[in-house]
TrEMBL record:
InterPro entries: Anti_sigma_zinc_sf (IPR041916), Znf_put (IPR027383)
Organism of derivation: Rugosimonospora acidiphila
Keyword Transcription regulation: yes
Domain Putative zinc-finger span(s) in chain numbering: 9-38
Keyword terms of this UniProt record: Transcription, Transcription regulation
Pfam families to which the protein is assigned, alphabetical: zf-HC2 (PF13490)
Lineage: Bacteria, Bacillati, Actinomycetota, Actinomycetes, Micromonosporales
Protein name: Putative zinc-finger domain-containing protein
Length: 66
């Protein structure tokens, strides 16, 4: 279990970016359901990724000096 935790935690980035095989993603999701640490970390990564992908679009649509 600790080994699985460490291995899956390191692969959270690939999971969030969608660069993971379906089988790996299933194993990771199963772990996330049981592991608060990893699920909090995954949420944080998803939020960060979401912010990164949204920011340029928002800046383009809404100038900051309005
Ligand atoms: Zn974990």
């Amino acid at each position: 279990m600790p080994d699985e935790h460490r291995r899956l935690r390191l692969s959270l980035g690939a999971y969030v970016l969608g660069e993971m095989s379906a089988a790996e993603a299933v194993a990771l999701e199963r772990h996330l359901a049981r592991c608060v640490d990893c699920s909090v970390e995954a949420d944080g990564l998803i939020e960060a990724l979401f912010a990164l992908t949204l920011l340029p679009e928002q800046e383009g649509r809404r100038p900051a000096d309005e």
